[in-house]
Amino acid sequence: MKFYVLTNPADAGEPAVTDFLDVDPVKRGEAPECPSCGETIGLLPWLPPHRAQLEVWGSQYGDVAFGPGYELLISKRLADLYRREGLSGLAGFHEVEVVRVIRRGGSKLRTPVPPYCCVTVAYSRAAVDLEASQLILEKPCTCSECRGGFVVRTTRVVLEEDTWSGEDLFRPRGLRGIIMASERFTAFFERNHMNNGLLIDADHFSFDFYPENGSSGAVEEGDS
After folding, report:
1. Regarding beta strands 90-104 and 116-127, do their DSSP bridges make them parallel or antiparallel, or are they unpaired?
2. Residue 92, C-beta contacts closer than 8 angstroms, at least 6 positions apart
3. What is the per-residue pLDDT for 26?
4. Beta pairing, strands 136-137 & 150-154
5. Contact 154, 207 (CB under 8 A)
6. Are 92 and 137 in contact (CB under 8 A)?
7. What are the pLDDT digits (tens) for 197-217?
8. N or C terminus of the chain with fewer C-beta within 10 Å?
9. CA triple 76-81-85, angle to 5 deg
10. CA distance 50 to 23
């Protein structure tokens, strides 16, 4: 099985770059906790009702909009096709009220805003293989369940064998700040010409937040 990382294509020349911000009044839930060590393993969830501001670049609205938290906004078109094909890993599908649109970078987009819904991506049992991924932490991981820590860099994303439980979109243990996609979701996304989602082969996904400092810098895993 091949896996991919779904990320914001802001610098990839995508004609439909779309971001969002939540708009007051905003309701937040309780942050999820690791059942083993009790540490927080995610951001405070954004609860309904959802009101959002879109920021768009280019000539199209994105089928995916990325925001500051762990939620995504997806178009009704994507949501309907996703459910029709029986894909898994997304939850919520709450209606979003888009209260304003800000056009960036000289965008002249004036078409009506498509319906959006808010979704969350499943926390998976899939676990990142630290050694195979060449993932560097500031300090050794102390919990084998949530595998939290401060990530400095990774060269690729490799999952431990037999830990993935079949989700088409998911956040893995050890790198819950990223969204991983199955081959099935990737084929679905490309076949239906969805936009504003960059799918990178997990074998080629890497980051290094402090390349000039060797391993002296760190970023909290959940923010990667």
Report:
1. antiparallel
2. 71, 117, 118, 119, 120
3. 96
4. antiparallel
5. yes
6. no
7. 999 999 999 988 767 565 433
8. N
9. 150
10. 8
**Token code pair at residue 144:** 């084998």
Segments forming the whole domain that contains residue 208: 3-223
Cβ-count burial 91-121 (b if 16+ within 10 Å, e if not): ebebebebeebeeeeebebeeeeeebbbbbb
Query: Which residue stretches of 85-164 are H helix?
Result: 130-133
Type and span of the H or E element at 72: strand 71-75
CB of 170 closer than 8 Å to CB of 124:
yes
Report which residue type is found at 144.
S
Residue 163: count other Cβ atoms within 10 Å of its Cβ. Answer: 15
Q: Please, are residues 181 and 171 in contact by the beta-carbon 8 Å criterion?
A: no
Residue 81, exposed/middle/buried by CB under 10 A (0-12, 13-18, 19+)? middle
Cα(55)–Cα(49) distance, integer angstroms: 20
pLDDT of 172 strictly over 90: yes
Number of domains the chain contains: 1
Q: How far apart are CA 107 and CA 193, in angstroms?
A: 21
Whole-model pTM over 0.85: yes
Asked if the model's pLDDT at residue 13 lies above 70, the reply is no
Q: CA-to-CA distance for 69 and 141, rounded, in angstroms?
A: 24
